[in-house]
Amino acid sequence: MSEFNTTSIHDLPTDPAGGGSIGGNVSLVTNETNYKIAPVQGQQGQQGSGMSLDQSTISQIVNGLQQASIVGATSLPSRDIPQNTQQIMNDPAIQANYVPPPPENQSDYIKDEDTNYTYREESINSSLDSVYDEIQAPLLLSVLYFIFQLPIMRKLIFQYIPFLCSNDGNYNFNGLLFTSALFGFIYYSLTKTMSHFNKF
Question: Any idea what DSSP says for residue 17?
Answer without folding.
Answer: G
